[in-house]
Amino acid sequence: MRIFLGILAAVLALAGLAFFYIIPVRVDAGRNVVVEHAPYAISAEARALHDDLRVGDLHSDMLLWMRNPAHRNDRGHTDLPRLREGRVALQVFASVTKTPSSMNYEANSADSDNITPLAIAQRWPIDTWGSIRNRALYHADRLNRLAQRDDAFTVIRSRADLDAVLTARESDPDALAGLLATEGAHPLEGDIANIAPLWDAGYRMVGLQHFFDNELGGSLHGLSGAGLSDFGREAVPALIEQGFIIDVAHSSPQVVRDVLAMTDRPLIVSHTGIHSHCPVTRNIPDELMQAIAAEGGLIGIGFWEDVTCDDSPEGVAAAILAAIDLVGVEHVALGSDYDGTITTTFDASEYAVLTDRLLDAGLGEADIRAVMGENLITFFRENLPE
């Protein structure tokens, strides 16, 4: 019996080791892939230009994964060292708090949740296992604690915070701003009272939906195709009044129309492609993109094949050019979706290849500066609270 119990204890220990320490690493590495490639050829002109850029990106899901973002990792797409190597000045970090088991672009039910087992396996606090709100608060705490350990990294909450980082970059190229966003507004858990805790934790941008219909309304990938619910019609004005920037990257077309009709505040589509360039369900109709741009909005172009139809650096550059043609250069930014369970052909340390390919495609220096970061910086300087 002692031998049996000893063997059982050893088996359980090994199973626990695998569940908590091996499986999460393998899931991360297998879901957030950079295609192996030789070093990209980058012209001297492109390198000189890139070294003078302030790069900005509207969407990274780095906070979902329990790798140490303070160190350069050999998996995934982003961490602080790689962001700095890529000349990033401002990175939006999204909090992913619930995803359905199927997670397809066509139709998903809200009845399942991949994040619960991931939260347990990655040893998140117990209060996050059953609470979507607490997952968002935990992600905010992770990023805020990272800023406490890295004097050159700031979680910005106001335009003054952003201006301080940009001023610091004039003498310290490692100065880096992070901004917190939610991937879907389900952390509100159907309660307006949860707006304040998210704001106090540092969130400044809210995506309304993710891969499923939620309390606020229909998802681009949900079952209903609905617009804003009664709660959504209450929550969106309350979020805007609080000061949040609204992101409709995963919202149904009708939700986008409803939000456009109820506010003149500019919206963001944080990570997407252009439908006429890549005609897939994930990319909302061109006329909605144009309506968002007409109200001063910003469109972040993603780096993965599902939205660009070509995830090579040349393909991403082509998607950016398509966006410029559709809505005008001043409304186009980067929206990588790094670490969002996607495959890319370059990571955050390799942004210079995109600068090079945009130059090769004939885009001028001023327009490259705009789409690579200046449009994003201008948008947040105009729309963050004072």
Written description of the protein model:
With 386 residues, this protein is α/β, with parallel strands linked by helices. The chain has one domain (32-383): TIM Barrel (Alpha-Beta Barrel). The protein is built from 14 helices and eleven strands. The strands form three sheets. Strands 2, 3, 4, 5, 6 and 7 form a six-stranded parallel beta sheet that branches. The protein has a three-stranded parallel beta sheet with strand order 8-9-10. A two-stranded parallel sheet has the order 1-11. Helix 10 (286-294) links the parallel strand 8 and strand 9. It is globular and about 65 Å long. It starts with a helix and ends with a helix.
Count of discrete alpha- or pi-helical segments spanning 4 or more residues:
14
Overall shape: it is: globular
Element string (H = helix, E = strand): HEHEHEHHEHEHEHEHEHEHHEEHH
Give a count of the beta strands, DSSP E runs of length 2 or more: 11
Which second-level CATH architecture applies? Alpha-Beta Barrel
> Under CATH, the topology is which?
TIM Barrel
| Mean model confidence by pLDDT | 95
What is the helix content? Answer: 40-55%
The Rg value, from CA coordinates, equals 21 Å
The CATH C-level class name = Alpha Beta
Task: Characterize the biggest β-sheet.
Answer: 6 strands, parallel
For CATH, the homologous superfamily is named as Metal-dependent hydrolases
Supply the helix-strand structural class.
Answer: alpha/beta
- Low-confidence runs (pLDDT<50, min 5 residues)? none
Total domain count: 1
Give the amount of beta strand, in percent. Answer: 5-15%
Tell me the distance between the termini: 69 Å
